Amino acid sequence: MLNSIMKLAAVALAGTALAASTAQAQVKLPPSVTMTAYDTGTSGFNITVAVGKMFKDKYGTDARVLPAGNDVARLQPLRLRRAVISAMGVGVYFAQEGVFEFATREWGPQAIQITLSSIDCNGLSLAVASDTGVKNYADLKGKRIGFVVGSPALNQNALAVLAFAGLTAKEVKLVEFAGNNAMWKGIINNDTDAVFGSTISGPAKELQTSPRGITWPAMPFSDKAGWERMRKVGPYFTEHTATCGAGEISKDKPVQMGTYPYPIYSVYGSQSEDEVYMLTKAMIEGYDGFKDNAPGASGLAVKAQAKNWAVPTHNGAVKALKEAGAWSDDQDNHNKALLKRQDTLIAAWNDFMKANPSSEPAKFTEEWMAVRKAALAKAGMTDTF
C-alpha cells in the first residue's frame, strides 16, 4: 500500500514539474510583429530594435520597427492596428489626457495603456550646446530652444525644464523642426541652442563629438522651488541622478536632473488580453537576450518597473507582471483608479462630440478643454493642465 502511495506521489510530482515546464514555454508570438518608436538612432528606437532581435532569436518572430518623429506619428499605426506596440515617451500621458496635439477633432483622449517601461542610468533634460557658455538653465534666457511640430511630449518637457529655472516660452526663442532627428541636426548646425532628449540617445553623442559640444546643466534636488515649478508644467517628472550619457556624465561624475519612464511600451486597451500578455511575458522572459544590446535596455527589468505612474497598465501586462511577482494590491488599486479616469475622459469626449462643437480648430480645442476640466472636477479628479 505504501509503495502504491509513493508511486502516485511520484507521478503527481512529475505532472507538476511538466506543468511548470509547460507554463514557462507557453509564450507564443505571431510570425511577425510591427512596433513603432522614435526616429532612428534615438535610445527608444535602439532599445526597440534590441527587443525585436530578441523576439527573432528566442521566439522566431520577425520584428519590424517603424521610426516616427513625433507622438502622433508613433501612435497612429497602433491606433489603426498596423502595429501591435509602440515605444512611446510621455506623449502616452498626453494622449490619455486628450491634451495638446491630442485635443483635436481627429484624436481626443485615447484608451492607451502600458506594458513595460524603462528607467535606467540615463536622465531626460535639455541638452545645451557647450559653445553657448550656458552653465545653468537660467542662462538660457534669450537663447534658441528646439521644438518639434506635433510632439507635445518634447515641447512640454522643454518648457518644464525652463520652468525649473523660472523661465517661460516668452523669455526664449522657440525654433520649430519637423521631427526629433531634425531638431538634433539643428543644434549641431547651430540653428538652435538647446533641445530636449535622453542623455544616452545617439544624436546626443553626435552633438558631443561636434564642434559645438554638449552639456547638461544640473537640476539640484535641493532647489525645492525649482522642482515645484517644474512639476506644475510636467507633473510626471521625478528627481533622478543620471550616471551615463553623452558629455561628462558617468558614475564618477553624476548629474542631478529629471526623468520619467522611457521608452514606455504602449498598447490600446481594446487589444486582447492574450496578445498583450504574450508580448509582455516575452519581454520579461527574454530580458537577458536584449538587456546589454542597447543603452537603457537594462531599465526594462521587471523588478525595476515604475510603480503607480500616470497611465494604467493593460490587463494582459498585469497578468504577466503578477506571474513575475512584480505586482501588488496597492498597484492594482491605483490602476483601477487610472482606468476610471480614462473612462471619465472618454465619456466626456463622446458627449462633447455629440454637442456639435465648433468646426474652427482653435475654438474646438478651447471648448474641449473646458468640457474636460468640468468632467474631471465633477468626478473629483485632478486636472494638471
What does it look like?
- Helix 5 (152-164) links the parallel strand 6 and strand 7 (173-177).
- The protein is of the alpha/beta class.
- Helix 5 (152-164) runs antiparallel to helix 8 (224-233) and helix 11 (329-354) packs across helix 12 (361-378).
- The N and C termini lie far apart (73 Å).
- Helices cover 42% and strands 16% of the residues.
- The protein has a five-stranded mixed beta sheet with strand order 2-1-3-12-4, sandwiched between helices. Strands 8-5-9 form a three-stranded antiparallel beta sheet, with helices on both faces. It has a two-stranded parallel sheet with strand order 6-7.
- The chain has two domains: 32-119 and 263-378, D-Maltodextrin-Binding Protein, domain 2, CATH 3.40.190.10; 124-259, Periplasmic binding protein-like II (D-Maltodextrin-Binding Protein, domain 2).
- The protein has twelve helices and twelve strands.
- It is globular.
**Any low-confidence stretches, pLDDT <50, length ≥5?**
1-25
Any idea how many domains? 2
Would you identify the CATH architecture of the largest domain? 3-Layer(aba) Sandwich
Shape assignment: globular
Class derived from helix and strand content: alpha/beta
CATH overall fold name of the largest domain: D-Maltodextrin-Binding Protein, domain 2
User: What is the average of the pLDDT values?
Assistant: 92
User: What strand order characterises the main sheet?
Assistant: 2-1-3-12-4
Order of helices and strands: HEHEHEHEEEHEHEHEHEEEHHHH
The largest pleated sheet is described as: 5 strands, mixed
Number of strands: 12
How helical, in percent, are the residues?
40-55%
Q: How much strand content do the residues show?
A: 15-25%
Instruction: Report how far apart the termini are.
Output: 73 Å
**CATH H-level name of the largest domain... which superfamily?**
Periplasmic binding protein-like II
Indicate the radius of gyration in whole angstroms.
Answer: 23 Å
**Assigned CATH class of the largest domain:** Alpha Beta
Total of helices: 12
